[in-house]
Amino acid sequence: xxxxxxxxxxxxxxxxxxxxxxxxxxxxxxxxxxxxxxxxxxxxxxxxxxxxxxxxxxxxxxxxxxxxxxxxxxxxxxxxxxxxxxxxxxxxxxxxxxxxxxxxxxxxxxxxxxxxxxxxxxxxxxxxxxxxxxxxxx
Length: 138
Prior knowledge:
- It is built from five helices and five strands.
- It has a five-stranded antiparallel sheet.
- It is 38% helix and 17% strand.
- A hairpin with a 5-residue loop joins strand 2 and strand 3 (31-34).
- Helix 3 crosses helix 5 (125-136).
- The chain has one domain (5-136).
């Protein structure tokens, strides 16, 4: 797990300023993000009806998590007190390319309304910095 290249990033500093999510660099050189994390922390904040633009975008290509990614995501989740939910990550969780997710998110953000009430757990920069060493050493 220590050999994984990963970092924290923000999806949207305006709408979700305090939300940091882990992205993992894969062998293809691209950063990937766990679909379950962005669904629960970001996309679930929007209404369920997809705009025509979002439908026209098509599907995001997802690949299954590998064993090292599963271990890393579970270590991060455990360190931050189940921020991403109580269910452990597993080899059936999907990863999507971060740049492709951001393209899709821009469409969602500009064409779909936010729900009137949202509850989003957050990882702030200050508590993230204090925990990174513990995660890397697991």
